[in-house]
Amino acid sequence: MHLRWIEAAVLLAVAVCHLPNCLAVTIQQHRDYIGCTAQKATCLTLMITEPLTGSIPTDIGLLTNLRELQLKTNEDNLLTGTLPTEMGSLTSLTMLEIETEGQTTQLQGNLPSQIGLLTNMQTLSITHNSLAETMHGLTGTIPFQFAQLIGLTHLDLQKNSLAGTIPTEFGYLSAVIELNLFRNSLTGNIPPEMGSMIKLERLLLDLNTLTGTLPSQLGALPLSYIGVA
To answer: Which pLDDT band holds residue 9 (cuts at 50, 70, 90)?
Structure first.
């Protein structure tokens, strides 16, 4: 089954037109397209249980009132293509979670730097987009613009194929409680600037190719767990 993601979003927007609260929608097969003003949607949660294929459309940027966006698939679903730069228009977002665990094709390309414009963001989780046997998945570097998300409390980019170094600008993320960069292809040293992440409790850097030693500046942080193996 092929279902355009914007059609799924509008299906949810129909429900939101009648219900004021956030709700989760399970997209079923053979649902008809129903028109509604998608901009009214404030919370979009797509829990996919039927096999679907397709990419995130650029039209997702029209849902400017969204506060929460969750796109989660499993091994039977194929969420493909790249993350559209138009996601930088979703300036009301406080939560963005994209998790794909398909075994054949997944999201590819770079993380859009425009996500750094979403300054209301509190939780950012884009995970499980790495296919080691083909070197596909989310690649490129971690945009330093993510450091503009000064209200961020949870940043999870685990199990992608991100390369390059950890941005020194992460020191500006003073509200982050958990930073998870587990199993990527990151290189270089752990920036001493991360010692300014004064609320950091969990730091997961395992299964990268980082070098050097732990910066002494991390010793002053309230870390309850740190993984760097």
So the answer is: low
Alpha-carbon distance 221 to 142, whole Å? 23
- Computed on alpha carbons and rounded to an integer, the radius of gyration of the chain in Å comes to 18
Report the number of secondary-structure helices (H) and strands (E) in the chain.
1, 16
Which tokens sit at 207?
């299964």
Q: pLDDT over 90 for what percent of the chain? A: 52
What pLDDT, in 10s, does the model give residues 48-101? 445 556 677 777 787 777 788 877 766 666 677 899 999 999 998 999 988 876
- The CA distance from 178 to 182, in Å, is 12
Q: Which pTM does this prediction carry?
A: 0.83
Q: CA angle, corner 128, sides to 126 and 129, nearest 5?
A: 85
pLDDT recorded at residue 57 = 77
Residues 6 or more apart from 194 whose CB is under 8 A from it? 166, 170, 171, 200, 203, 215, 217, 218
**Angle made by CA atoms 51, 53, 54, in degrees to the nearest 5:** 150
Half-sphere exposure in the Cβ direction for 48 (13 Å, CA): 27
What separation, in Å, do the N-terminal and C-terminal C-alpha atoms of the chain show?
41
Give me the pLDDT at residue 53, please.
60
User: How many C-alpha atoms does 119 have within 13 Å on its Cβ side?
Assistant: 4
Give CA separation, 98 vs 20, 32, 73, 103, 131, in Å.
Answer: 24, 25, 9, 16, 16
Please give the distance of CA 104 from its chain centroid, rounded to a whole number.
20
